[in-house]
Amino acid sequence: MLNGKNIVVGVTGGIAAYKAADVVSRLKKLGANVYVVMTEHSTKFIQPLTFQSLSQNYVVTDMFEDPKTWDVEHISLAKRADLFLIVPATANIVGKVAHGIADDMLTTTMMATEAPVFFALAMNTKMYENPIFQDNLKILGKYGYHLITPDSGRLACGDVGTGKLADPERIVDTVIQFFNRPRRLSGRRILVTAGPTREALDPVRYITNHSSGKMGYAIAEAAAAEGAEVILVSGPTALDIPNGVKRISVVSTQEMFDAVMANLDVDAVIKAAAPADYKAADYSDEKIKKTEGDLSIRFEKNPDILKRVGELKTHQVLVGFAAETHNVEAYAKKKLVEKNLDMIVANDVTAEGAGFNGDTNIVTIYDRSGDVFKYDCMEKTDVAKVILNKVIERLQK
Ligand code: PMT
What we know:
Layout: E1 6-11, H1 17-29, E2 33-38, H2 48-55, H3 74-80, E3 83-89, H4 91-98, H5 105-112, E4 117-121, H6 125-129, H7 131-142, E5 146-148, E6 151-154, E7 160-164, H8 168-179, E8 189-194, E9 199-202, E10 205-207, H9 214-225, E11 229-234, E12 245-249, H10 253-261, E13 268-271, E14 278-280, E15 299-301, H11 305-312, E16 317-324, H12 328-338, E17 343-348, E18 360-361, E19 363-367, E20 372-374, E21 378-379, H13 380-396
Parallel strand pairs: 1-2, 1-3, 3-4, 4-5, 8-11, 8-13, 11-12, 13-16, 16-17
Antiparallel strand pairs: 6-7, 9-10, 14-15, 17-19, 18-21, 19-20
Helix pairs in contact: 1-2, 1-8, 3-5, 4-7, 9-13
Bound molecules: ligand PMT.
Ligand PMT is lined by residues 193, 195, 211-215, 253, 271-275, 277, 302, 304-306, 320-323, 335, 347, 349, 355-357, 361.
């Protein structure tokens, strides 16, 4: 049921640490590869050898010891993990993660991972109810961490109340459910474009724009997380390839055009890229030399990729973007019609918190049905989810 899943179990220092052994054993029996990282405090409650025997993997405790194998070096574990499970998760680990403290092997590995992280909470009732701790839980929620709530009952300290580690069976069920959750784009293919393009003037110079690719990469990542097969046609960016996404790297608008045309056998096309509309009409094979006078460069039009997709589209849901500095609504609606789009995501790239480069965007979505959806400033990762929800609604129609 968990065949081949790489699960990192973080054990922290609470009396319930011994129950983590049961969790590791269950995960292992279900076919997962389990890597245990222990905090120093947790080793006072249970020996690393127990987890080593159960997981059949080396157990890491000390960040500064010579790695026994690079497989368990913290960055390598962070990258390989499909899921992190902190069991038991004490008030201390919650507080540290909520405030970005990375001072041991477990917290540095957690800080470096993009995998989903689940905290199986366990602590004294009064600690659990402490408003500082409750605030820290809210911070974890804000950053997308998952919580496995504690049970109520008689705690090890003798108190009765909330704080008892969830039953190992419930913890493992949560993990199974996470991996088996219905993913709304399973079996769908989505083409996303992102980033700028570059148009060379000569072997050393080019024109481009401020696109970082963040908007398009966020969409690609969110689509992959929903189970889609994602092709990301990307101009030059400094971003890593999102998990589970196939990236085709291009430089010029013509290259982006060719890559998009070759990959139109998809269910949806989302064009977040900012391709250059013009290229130098007379590319110089040699470096253009500085002269006394001014320099004029003639530009000619690049193909309009989105317009062409709009002409060719059969069944695909087609989403365009409109990056505008003025008359946002009018220009966006014009593009929606002229390019035969299903929806257009308009952003005023002069607004604070919107457009190029930053981590946030402010968008309005105009649907071809006439519906308009206006959003406040959001993280680009959340904008991506909003756009995908609209695409999914159309695909399900
Ligand atoms: O990459 P980031 O730094 O995260 O910034 C995000 C963004 C501002 C680039 C993004 O939110 C955005 O607005 N992308 C569209 C940029 C753009 O080129 O807008 P446009 O209004 O000029 O073009 C309209 C649409 O036609 C876009 O979907 C564009 O991808 C497409 N187009 C444009 C020119 C061209 N030759 N071919 C195209 O397909």
